[in-house]
Structures are given as structure tokens and as C-alpha cells.
Amino acid sequence: MYKLTSKALFFAQMGALAFSVQAANLPENLQWQTNWDDPLFASEQAKRGGTLRTHLQSFPLTLRSVGPDSNAGLRAYFLDGVPSLVTRHPDTLNWIPSIATEWAYAGDNKTIYFKLNPEAEWNDGEPLTADDFVFMLTFYRAKDIIAPWYNDYYTKTIADVVKIDDHTLAVSTVDEKNPEELMLTLGGLVPRPAHFYKGGKDKNGDGIDDNYVRRYNFKAEPTTGPYRVDKIKKGKSLTLKHIGEDWWGYGNRYYKNRYNVEKIRFTVIRDEDVARQHFEKGDLDVFDLTLPEIWHEKTDTEVYQKGYVQKFWGYNQTPQGGGGVWVNTAVPLLNDLNVRQGILHATDIDGLIEKLIRGDYQRKPHAIGFGHGKYDWPDAKAPDFNVETAVNYFTKAGFDTVGADGIRVNADGQRLTFEMVYPYAAWTPRMAYLKEQAKLAGLELSLKLIDGATGFKYMLEKKHQLAFVNMGSGEIPATGSTSIPRAPTSHKPTISPTTAHRNSTP
Fold first, then answer.
1. How confident is the model over 262-294, as pLDDT tens digits?
2. Which residues lie closer than 8 Å to 254 by C-beta, 6 or more apart?
3. What CA–CA distance (Å, rounded) separates 502 from 492?
């Protein structure tokens, strides 16, 4: 069994900077593993080159992947979509090499050793080393990044990162985990470029520039991925450019025939209907189709009739994040469990699906999403829309009187009314339906549209009372600053110049 050196344990326990921690030698008898035998999954017919033209509803408030305003759609290119130590094969679900080519379990249910690909480098040309993973821990623990979730996770879950040599490191968790969970926790770690952050003012002594948020707001950080920021037209567009055929990742067989587009151009088009028209004219190459009214009513024009765009409805089994009404329990009245229970039973999700969105969507009972295998609660049941049940809960909370306008009132004269924010204008009819149904239980919902990145920032800062939004998800269900808002559906329809896709999760 491997144990960290006394120096390493001291730093881990005291929460000091892990950047200076090093172990002298590898433990004996480590069983190194790798996996180069799983089938390739990218098409041999894929062609290189060209520009993929797509759109954003709002320009990102920052290019940072961490800190205030960083939960934007481009995050997938700057953090979530770049290589990690290892990754899952999408079909076999076996672990396969990514930045790390080999790994070995220490046997203590806390530590895994990784050997890094010596060819791996940042997309500014600088070599990637174990120092970048050690710096990662320093970075995420720093208060100057203004990211409490990361501060907490990388202190209470990730115990230490120890450099053995330039291309070997040991990573450990605070608590013991079984081998699968241990690799899920540690194998997905992504490095941060230590060289990029050198030279900043650091009065706090946490290793990060005291002015991190402002200094790096629109300064693109290097990643290990195949794309770098090429052009920025603030408020209008942003273009990513491929590193080229010499990207280090192409030395890994599992990256073969992937990342084929030379450039990716994001143009800001705030109205989804306008974006669809741009797509149909050929000005955009892809268009995410999530709205049933578009799929059923607006895809019968000439471009579809003549076969320029073909509609296709497919299925996938990807994990889905939690969605629906998110409650800010720090708000007075909403800290009352009875009020929250009443709101749940006064929210007619099933009626919304049936009457407004053609039954196209599926409601799953899991509060934090579904498709997470054993992490899902198998017997979970979604709360039903039940006016009588909602009224009983509201009455228990003291709202036992109904005003002249039909809204319930408590003994202090407070009306049972809450603001509900939502991020997409296309959802307005849906929110209006929920508002009218809630009135049947004496609950008033005051609707507020705050679209784009501004809307999600509003929610993250807990300025909302109620928020209707869906989150992204990974293999392990979680909520927090890593989640990304997306369209409110278990379906993910898209269309392209030759095919209109409608991907659905059964």
C-alpha cells in the first residue's frame, strides 16, 4: 500500500500549496495498466477541412472556464471538451488513454498513479508536464478565482497531486472510494497551464493573480485540445481554429478521424427563429432543433420538400441533467418545506408536456436527472400536479386564506407569490401555462425572462426566487457551478444541411 511522504501529508492536511510537493520514488510492485485494444469509433469517411458555422444566442460574458460568468455554452470547448487524464470509450465504457497513457492503482482506495504522454502539449506550443497537474490543485483552491464550488471540491474531494517526475504523478482523494469511483473522480482531471499564469500579482500567496477575474476575462487560456481562439468580435462572433495535423492528440489512436473541422465560427443570433432561417438559407451549417413547434410546423418549407434538408429522428442514451423548477431556499418563505412541497404539486409539468409540446418530451422522476446507471434512484416518483395536495401544504405553511384575486394569503397579509425566471423567450407560452395552472392552488407566479448568459448568472448569484432551467450532466449526477443550462427536454433534436436530426433519450 502506498502512502504519501510525511511532507506531502503535511501539505495535504494543512491545505497548503500542493505545487511544491514532490515524492522521491515510485512505490514498488505497481501494476501498470493501459488499453489500446478497444475499437475505434470515429468514421473513416470523415474529411478534414472547412469551417463549421453555428450560432450563439448571446455573446459569452467571459472566455474564462472558471469563475464568475463562466457557465456559458463555449465552456465545452475551453474545459469540458478538452482531454483529461483518461476517458471512457463511448461504446465499451472501458477506460482508454488520453493525456495519460498508463495508470496504476496504489491499493489504498485513494491514490492512482498516471504516466503522461510525453508528446502532450498546450495549444500554444508549450510542453505539458506533471507540474501543470500540480498547479491545477493550486489554481482550483485559490480564492482569487472566485469559484467557491471549485475551492470546496478540490479541497474536500481531491487531497493531493504529487509530482514523481516530469511525466509521472500520483493523485489522491480525501476519502476512500471503490476502484470505479476512484477513476471516475481522478481520471477526469484536466490540467491548468502553469506557464500561462506566471508573473501575476499574488499578495494573498495562493499562487494566482489577485486580479484573476478581470485580467483573464477575455484572455483565452491555452488548452490541451485541438482548437485555439482565433478571432473575437465582441458581441458579434468568435472563431476557433484547429491546431493542425501535428496536434499531439493524433498520436493517440482513439483521436483518429476526430476534430476534422478547420475552423468553428460562432455568430450571435439572439432569436432562434431567425437562426433557423439563416440555416435554411445556407448561412449556418447546423441548427439545434429542440422546439416541437419548429419540428412539426416550420420544417415543411421548400428546402425540406426538395430534399436539401432531410428530417431524421434518432435516439441516444446519454446522461441527462436535472431540470424544472429550481428553488432558492435562502429566500424568505421558500425556506419553508411546506411552501416548497406546495409549489411542486402546483406545477403542472405533465399537462405542459401533453397540451403545449405535443407529448414529444419525456418526464423522468429523478431530481438530478437520469441515465446515470446505479446512481439513479430506481423507485423515484415525480410529484404529481394535485391542487388539493398543494393547498394542504400551503395551508400548513400558514396560507389558509384566499384573497379576492384567488391568491392565498397568510395571517401577516403576505400573498403567496414568487418570481420565476427563465432563460429562453421560446419558453414564454410554457411558463404562461404553468402560471395559470398554479393559480388553481392559489399560487401566483410572476414571470421574468432573462435570456442568455446574463440569465444564468442571475441564477448563480441567487438573485432569483424560482428558476425554470435544465442542467447538463456527466456520468455521476451532480449540481453546482459545473452545470450548464440547456434546452428543457430529454430530446436533443438538431438539423444539418443534409439531414435533420432529432436525437431523443428513450
1. 999 999 998 888 999 999 999 999 887 777 888
2. 38, 40, 41, 89, 96, 97, 98
3. 6
The rounded distance, in Å, linking the Cα atoms of 345 and 364 is 16
Q: Express each pLDDT in 310-338 by its tens digit.
A: 877 877 777 888 888 999 999 999 999 99
Q: Are 140 and 161 in contact, with CB atoms under 8 Å apart?
A: no
Q: Which of 490, 488, 502 is nearest to 295 (CA)?
A: 502
Q: Is 255 helix (H, G, I), strand (E, B) or coil?
A: helix
C-alpha atoms less than 13 angstroms from C-alpha of 458 in its C-beta half-sphere: 20
The DSSP string of 101-150 is: EEEEE-SSSSEEEEEEPTT-B-TTSPBP-HHHHHHHHHHHH-GGG--HHH
Q: Are 495 and 309 spatial neighbours (Cβ–Cβ below 8 Å)?
A: yes
For 315-380, give the secondary structure using H, E and C.
ECCCCECCEEEEECCCCCCCCCHHHHHHHHHCCCHHHHHHHCCCCCCCCCCCCCCECCHHHCCCCC
Question: DSSP characters for 6-64?
Answer: HHHHHHHHHT--GGG-B-SSPPTT---B----SPP-S-TT-----EEEEEESS--S-S-
Cα dihedral sign, 221-224-229-234: negative
Q: Sign of the CA dihedral 63, 282, 488, 426?
A: positive
350 in Cβ contact with 373 (< 8 Å): no
Q: What share of the chain is helix, strand, coil (3-state, %, to 5)?
A: 25, 20, 50
Residue 56 pairs with which residues in a beta bridge? 268
Condensed to tens digits (0 to 9), the pLDDT of residues 143-171 reads 999 999 899 999 999 999 999 999 999 99
Walk me through the domains of the chain, giving residue ranges and CATH numbers. Answer: 6-47+59-215 (3.90.76.10), 269-317+491-506 (no CATH), 323-489 (3.10.105.10)
Q: Are 340 and 327 in contact (CB under 8 A)?
A: yes
Q: Are strands 227-233 and 237-242 parallel, antiparallel or unpaired?
A: antiparallel
